[in-house]
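quick one, 435 residues, struct below
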Amino acid sequence: MSLCFVTFLGTGNYEKVSYQTLDGSIINTAYAQTAIVHGFRNEMQRDGRAFVFVTPEAKARHWDTEQSLQSELKKYFSEDTIKTIEIDTVTTEEQIWSLFDKIFQNIPEQSELVFDITHAFRSIPFLGIVIINYTRLVKNISLRGIFYGAYDRNLSSPYKIIDLTNIDRLLRWSIGVSQYLNTGNAIEINQLANETVSRYKAANKDADPYLYLERNLANNLKNIWPILTTCRSNEIIDGSKFISIKDKIEELKKYNIHYIKPLGVLYDKIEEIVYLFKKDCVANILPAVQLCIKYNLIQQGITLLQEGIITIVLYVLGIDDFYTREHREAVSRYFTYINEPGKYTHPANEEQYKVIGEKLEKSIMLESLKTVYKRLQDIRNDINHAGFTSQNIRPDRFELGLKDIFRQTLLVFSENKEIKEAWLINVAKSLAQKE
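---
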């Protein structure tokens, strides 16, 4: 991955002054670009490349003369690794898109950028931030830093090179937070949290343990996504990974810890997502289904809800071994039987389902659930068979169907007298109020 220096050359009257470079040394130059590159001189001299964006006026004044930026950059780059790209003064939307295209086209794939905005004209610094992020996604580039030469004639030299890379990090956090809140995928949040910890560790060997607690929170958030996308009912019922998130947030809020500030503002929203989860609790399936709906994981939500109904039915009947295949088949067959009694056999009439079948027959709750179960069975059959069925359900009907079936299921669980566990009823009622 080559290190690429991207800069913009203006038309100002640049004076030769002293700059303090990123490595602490002092150099005299009229160009902040030289001071920035000097901080990366070993890498630039080895395999670096420079991309200098110039207007015709700037090129004539500060590039094609003897004491120019060109002559100074040649101390760090070989001539064939320096490229000038002529641009227009940006005043219109069309010119903004033209500049965007020129910058994007010239940045190499998988390169690492050192981005200088010292002499960037007006809107270019803002455009540069956007281009960095877009190019990161499309060309898989990384950013070493965004820098600005803080020259001010009213202050004494040496002038500092200011690191503005946090602006890019804030944009990445914005994207990561949006991704998490809308989809449940916290992979970018986790990556950014790890980067923050690494920077703190580099600056402070004895970092506060709460910094690692925030990092672990981000990692726990990342681990929820695959549990939902792969419908891992055992981990959902176990609840440990959801509870761990609750516990970490409670501790961080108690001591008002905000090392990773963009993560800290999410604490309340994260708590809303996990507050109904308990350890070793079948009721966890219900908020998990609600999360699938929230994150548009429709196929997963349909699957979890149907399997969740079977699980909760077994639990209410006092059958804790709800992973046994015969037990689950008995419930499924009983629903099929009561929906079409003249067509299918009562599971109690089959030896392997006899005990469970007799218990199911005594349950009033199943009669209340039979219609929603049949609807759920139909849409699950269609979506899991990729539409190769006689139903021909439209794509938008799956989400609508799941929401409606889930709402009706919650009403049954919140009102049914057979359910003795208060927490299961409370979870159903709480979720029903949100629907």
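The mean pLDDT is 91.
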